[in-house]
Structure formats: C-alpha cells, structure tokens
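User:
Note these tokens:
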Amino acid sequence: MHADATADAKPVSPPPRAAAGRIDVAVFHGLDGLRALAEDWRAIDEASGVYARFEVFEAFAAHLLDAPDRLTLLRCADAAGALAILPCVPATGRLLPFGPVQATALAPHLHMGWGDFPLAVRADPRAVALALARSPHGGGLLWWRRVPVGGAAHRIAQAWPYPASLRPASPRNGLDTTLDGEALAAAWSKNLRTSLQKSRKRLTADGPWRIVTASAGPEAAQAFGAFLHLEASGWKGSSGTGSAIALDPRLTAFYRRLLEAGRPGLRCEIALLEAGGRPAAAQFAMIDGQCRHVLKIAYDESLSRYSPGQVLLEEMLKRACADPALSITSLVTDMPWHQAWRPIPEPCAEVIIFRDRWRRLAFRAYESALPALWAAREAWRRRSSAGAPPHPRPFFHRHRP
C-alpha cells in the first residue's frame, strides 16, 4: 500500500517531456523531493487554498509528519510545465464495511485545517484525473478527509474516470469583510453584541487597552512568545488537556516556521489585545491573498470577565472590513461558538477513491444500502420505545452472526 521510502530528490522516472496534450506523472519522495518541487509548486498554487500553499505544506512535512521519508508526491505535467502536484501521505483509519484500512491522505493532522493540493488554472481536471488514475503510484485507496468544495481535490475527485465517494464534511466558517463594519456586526446575535458592549466598557473602566499586530522581525517573535504563553496558561496547558502548542516542540516548530516563511500575498500575523500592560488575548492568523485565516486563538482565562478573545476578534473583523485588500475572514473550522457571529459556512467534502475495482464495487453497494439500513434501524428503535413488539427485526439484526 505504501510508496517506497526514499529521500531521493530525483524523480523515479526522468522528468516528463510530454508531447502536446499529453500528461505524464513523475514521482518524488521525501522532504528532498518536496523541496525539489518548490519552484513548480509555487508556480501553480496561486489559486489554491492556504493549506495547499508550498510554505504551509513544507512546514507540515518538515515538522508534523511522523515519517517524512514516506511522503510521495506525484507531479502531473504537460509540455508547458507542471499542472498539479498530488501529495500522498500514508495514513490508517477505520472505514466501514472494511474495518482498518491503509490509505494515502493529503495532510492528515489536526493542525492542518483541511487538505488540498495545487492545480494550475490552465489544467483540465478531467485530463489530470485520468493521468492520476492511470498512474500505478499513490496507493490503492485515496482518502481525503476534508477538502473544500470547489477546490482542486474536489474537482479532481468529481472528474475521476470512475465514481468517487463524495460525502459532506464539516464546513469552514467565514465572515464577509467586504461589508461595512456596522453592517457585519448587525448580523451577529443580540447576546453577542450585548456581551461585546459590556466587555468593552469593563476594559475601558479598568484601564487602557490596545490592539497590536506583528508579522515579521523581532516584534513577531516576541508576539509569538506571548501567544504561546497565553495558550498554555489555560485549559490547554499541562494541568488541562496538554494540547497547547508550547508543550509540543514539533507544533512549536511548525508555527514558528509559518511565521518566518512568507512571500508576496502570503504572510502570518499575530494580533494581541493588551490590557493593563499585559497580553489578554491573541490570534495567530495567516493572510493569503484576500483572506485572513484565523488559525489559532488564545486568551488569559483570569481575565475572562472582559471576554478578551471576543473583543479581539471583533476588532480584527472591523479592521478587515476597513481594509480593501481583505474580503473574507476564515475561522477555518466549524465550532459551536462561531454561530453567534453568524458566519457563512463554506462546504467541505470527504473524498474516498478505491482504485481496486472489487473493493470499489463493494463500497458502492454498502453506501447504496446504508440509507435503507439506517431507516430500518430507526423504525425498529421507534417501535421498541413505543412498547410495541420489536419484531419483525431489521435485516441486519435478523441475520447477524
């Protein structure tokens, strides 16, 4: 299932010299192979989402990937150059009806909000999908857990030469900052607006407070340290869940690398709300073109009466509304607390592609039967809870071993 483990920067086959209209697939391995593709990747990732940008994926591969030498990359190219670069990361999981399976994923890590890969604007998704389907590399199961609908991975899956399974996944919530700040705030819940007003009054009454931002140089490094300290001081710290970034050297290196990396149109920014001369809340964000992605947030729980995290988010949204270069603020995930801000959900999908014909047919049969099985199960539950005899039992109860 897994691709050969090698860190050779050279492709397994010579770089493609394709005839006009023909797409060839070359295979690269490991971090050296990834870095050998940097120029091609950057040339075609302008239309990609933030997690498909070279700098973000390279930081992931360098610091969060357990076995970077097992990373495989498939470069699709025609005579004019690169068309797509598909990362294939070995992953495992449970997939009914097969149980434990081995697959290749895009970026399987909690701190990579979703998966995608670069696809040239000029590329024909059908031709690229056909080239990838014909390639013997990449494993027998492609399992992309959460990809943006309309993104490269989703379009390639839709164009795959045989049916792929496309299931709904949790959306990415975003806020439209092309609106005037007051118009955006008018859509928020009444409870949120009231809470923000009270928090601002408390902050102002107890002393001066301000918002500072940093994106480069010593100021950014200092702000990053303040962000790490805030996040580790609360429920994510060592006395809580232990999930704070500062407690994991690999996560710390990942975010530091994002902060230090950058190029035109792509940069990180740390925003701090300072109250009483000390940081009260922080955001770690990445600005990618016209979108500001809020990757991580933190606040001082001892100052929770001020709701500093909410006040900071409000301030940064107002600044984004006033900035003509920014059109959307992405919250990356779909969390319950988002709903008070009335975000616009951007749909995501889970993609499952079996390259083995028999497993593909078995999986399609299972998916086709699943709605009827769930309906029978719910009908049986309702009948049982009403006190009626549960017979006749659904098929999967009558025929279980």
Q: What stands out?
A: The mean pLDDT is 90.
